[in-house]
Amino acid sequence: MSKYRIAPSILSANFAKLGEEVDNVLAAGADIVHFDVMDNHYVPNLTIGPLVCEALRKHGVTAPIDVHLMVKPVDRIVPDFAKAGATYITFHPEASEHIDRTIALIRDNGCKPGLVFNPATPLDVLEWTLDKLDMVLLMSVNPGFGGQKFIPHVLEKARRVRQMIDATGKDIALEIDGGVGPANILEVAKAGVDTFVAGSAIFSAGKDADAHRYDSVVAAMRAELAKAR
Ligand code: DX5
Ligand code: ZN
Fold it and tell me: Which helix (H) or strand (E) holds 225?
């Protein structure tokens, strides 16, 4: 099995037929469902909540669901997402008053905690949290919208986090989110990233294809990743 995981962001899917979209992208070989939660407060956009996560589980989705919380405050909504079937729950440290408490809350609710860093957010919080996390998520765009351009300095950040994770000896995922597609996934992998969010690159590629199939774009990403070994 590949050490790399592809996590389509359903933000760019057709919400009018979300279950089918998720089925198709998983059938195309994606590994994780990236679920972007926006509150029109922490970020200037509004998306989906626990009801939609639960609906995907009821629809039959068994793949991990990677809930990316772009909300403030964080804690109130965590148990709701755990009950709704979230696998990972990641949050932005500046959106929580008590980061250690929020990490523990996610773990106590049976989910895997992760921290998310915006392009300009320093990594110092990791000094006292990394060994309690299952995922570090680096934003390679400013959060709020799909379809933005990849910010290159995040590659340097990824190299630093890779070193920090390796030093722990623990199995902690390093995920990147924003502006990733077949054209740049290889250089992102070479910077030490193992989990790749892609929204518009995947869902817009499949839009014109018959029955919204995503096989060729997921295969193109895997073909690039194969060169990293
Ligand atoms: C942005 C979201 C991303 C976004 C990525 O706030 O966190 O997950 O959907 O979309 P693309 O891949 O189009 O940049
Ligand atoms: Zn995201």
Answer: helix 215-226
* Mean pLDDT in residue range 190-217: 88
CA angle 86, 150, 95 (to 5 degrees): 45
Q: 199: Cβ below 6 Å to ligand 1?
A: yes
Task: For residue range 34-53, list pLDDT tens digits in order.
Answer: 999 999 999 999 999 999 99
Q: What is the CATH number of the domain that holds 56?
A: 3.20.20.70
Q: Give yes or no for residue 97 having a pLDDT over 80.
A: yes
The parent domain of residue 116 ranges over 5-226
Q: Report the atom number in ligand 1 closest to the C-alpha of 142.
A: 6
Ion ligand 2: residues, CB within 5 A, are 36, 68, 177
Count: domains in the chain: 1
Q: Which residues of 140-170 are buried (b: 16+ CB within 10 A; e: fewer)?
A: bbebebbebebbeebbebbeebbebbeeeee
Q: Which atom of ligand 1 is nearest to the CA of 150?
A: 14
Cα gap 104→152, rounded to integer Å: 32
CA distance 36 to 158: 21
Kindly state if the Cβ of 200 falls inside 6 Å of ligand 1: yes
112-117, strands of its sheet edge to edge: 5-8, 195-198, 173-177, 135-139, 112-117, 88-91, 65-70, 33-38
Whole-prediction pTM value?
Answer: 0.97
